[in-house]
TrEMBL record:
Similarity annotation: Belongs to the class-II pyridoxal-phosphate-dependent aminotransferase family. Histidinol-phosphate aminotransferase subfamily.
Signal peptide: none
Keywords recorded for this protein, A-Z: Amino-acid biosynthesis, Aminotransferase, Histidine biosynthesis, Pyridoxal phosphate, Transferase
Any GO molecular function: pyridoxal phosphate binding
Organism: Lacinutrix venerupis
Group of enzyme by EC: transferase
Residue numbers of N6-(pyridoxal phosphate)lysine PTMs: 208
The keyword Ion transport belongs to this UniProt entry's keyword annotation: no
Protein name stated in the entry: Histidinol-phosphate aminotransferase
Length: 344
C-alpha cells in the first residue's frame, strides 16, 4: 500500500464538486410500469435509453475477475478510460503525465486534446523501464499519471512486474496499467492488486482477445474511490444497449474466446518461424501480444511493396527504426503476407 497517496489531493477541483449523473429512473426503487420520465418514444424496440450503470456486464465481470461491481467502470473502448483519466486528474495547461516510449499513441493524442504535457522516458534493454532515470519524476507534484502499457504496443513485451510494483509504491499519482493485450500473455493481470494499491487503474478491452473492436467497449478496474470519480465524469449513456448485449453474449461464450486465443497464439508461432526464414528480416522481438515487432532492412520499402499487394501492416508510428508491426491474422492471411514477402 502506498501510504502517502491521497486521492483527494489529486482530483481536479471542479470534479470534486460534481455529483454523478442520476436520472429519475435511477432514483426510482422497484419496478415501474410506465416510463414517462426521459422523453423517449413509446414505440419500437430500441426506444429506451440504455442502462447507464451497465449492471449486467459488471455483475458478470465481477464474477470472472473476482472484484466488486463498484470496482468496475465500463467505457466506450479503453480509449475512453484513458481520456476520462486526463479529465479527472489533470489540470489543463498545468499538469503532466509520463509515458515510456515507444508506446501506444493514444496517451499522447488524449494528452494533446486535454492540453497536458507528456514526459517521455525511453524504454531500455529490450524495452524495459529505466527506474534510475524515472526516480526524480516520482516526486514531481505536477506529474499526475504514469502510463504503463503491458504487454506494450508496439514492442509486444510485458513490463517487469517488480518495476510496476515499485512505481505503484513510490509514486503519489495514478498509475494506469494498460492491459489491452493481457489475454495473449503468460503474465498475470494486475487486477488482483486493486485492493492493495489505491493509486492503480487497470485498463482492459473487448477489442483484442474478445474480438469486439467494432463494438467499442473497454473496462477500468480500480478502487471504489477511483471508479466513483469515473462515474462522476462519464457521459450518462456511454455504452449503447446493442453494445451491452453483444458484450454480454460474448461473456457467456468464453469457451469460443479461449479457442480463438489459442489459434492466434499458434498462428503467431508459425508466422514468426516463416518470417525468420526471410532474408529481409533482421530481428523479431519477443512478444506476449497478438502482433510482432520485426526489424527489417528497409521498413518503408517493405510497407509500400505490401500496400501494392493489398496487404497493410504498420510502419510509421512503430517509433522503432526500421521496424514494422505485423498483427497475427488467420492462417490464410498470414500465408498471403509471407508469399508476398518471399517475392519481394
Ligand atoms: N491500449 C492499447 C495498448 C491499444 O493498443 C489499444 C488499441 N490499439 C487500446 C488501448 C484501445 O483499445 P479500445 O479499442 O478498447 O479503445
Amino acid at each position: 500500500m502506498n501510504t502517502t497517496f491521497n486521492i483527494n489531493n489529486l482530483v481536479r477541483a471542479n470534479i470534486k464538486a460534481l455529483k454523478p449523473y442520476s436520472s429519475a429512473r435511477d432514483e426510482f426503487k422497484g419496478t415501474a410500469d410506465v416510463f414517462l420520465d426521459a422523453n423517449e418514444n413509446p414505440f419500437g424496440e430500441l426506444n429506451r435509453y440504455p442502462d447507464p450503470q451497465q449492471s449486467k456486464i459488471k455483475e458478470k465481470l465481477s464474477t470472472i475477475k473476482s472484484v466488486e461491481t463498484n470496482q468496475i467502470f465500463i467505457g466506450n473502448g479503453s480509449d475512453e478510460v484513458i481520456d476520462l483519466a486526463f479529465r479527472i486528474f489533470c489540470e489543463p495547461g498545468k499538469d503532466k503525465v509520463l509515458t515510456f516510449t515507444p508506446t501506444y499513441g493514444m496517451y499522447d493524442v488524449s494528452a494533446n486534446i486535454n492540453n497536458i504535457e507528456v514526459i517521455k522516458q525511453p524504454l531500455i534493454n529490450d524495452f524495459q523501464i529505466n527506474l534510475n532515470q524515472l526516480q526524480p519524476y516520482l516526486d514531481f507534484e505536477d506529474v499526475k499519471i504514469i502510463f504503463i502499457c503491458s504487454p506494450n504496443n508496439p514492442t509486444g513485451n510485458t513490463i517487469n512486474t517488480d518495476d510496476i510494483e515499485y512505481i505503484l509504491e513510490n509514486f503519489n499519482g495514478i498509475v494506469i496499467v494498460d492491459e489491452a493485450y493481457i489475454d495473449f500473455s503468460s503474465q498475470a493481470s494486475f487486477i488482483k492488486n486493486i485492493n492493495k494499491y489505491n493509486n492503480l487503474i487497470v485498463s482492459q478491452t473487448f477489442s483484442k482477445a474478445w474480438g469486439l473492436a467494432g463494438v467499442r467497449v473497454g473496462v477500468a478496474y480500480a478502487s471504489e474511490a477511483i471508479i466513483a470519480l469515473y462515474n462522476r465524469v462519464k457521459p450518462p449513456y456511454n455504452v449503447s444497449t446493442l453494445n451491452q448485449e453483444v458484450v454480454l453474449e460474448r461473456l457467456n461464450n468464453q469457451f469460443e474466446v479461449s479457442k480463438n486465443i489459442e489459434t492466434i497464439l499458434s498462428e503467431r508461432t508459425k508466422l514468426k518461424d516463416a518470417l525468420n526464414q526471410l532474408d529481409i528480416v533482421k530481428k523479431i522481438y519477443p512478444t506476449d501480444a497478438n502482433f510482432l515487432l520485426v526489424e527489417v532492412d528497409n521498413a518503408d520499402r517493405i510497407y509500400q511493396y505490401l500496400i501494392d499487394k493489398k496487404v497493410i501492416i504498420r510502419n510509421r508510428n512503430t517509433q522503432v527504426e526500421n521496424c514494422i508491426r505485423i498483427t497475427v491474422g488467420t492462417n490464410q492471411e498470414n500465408k498471403k503476407l509471407i508469399e508476398a514477402l518471399k517475392n519481394i
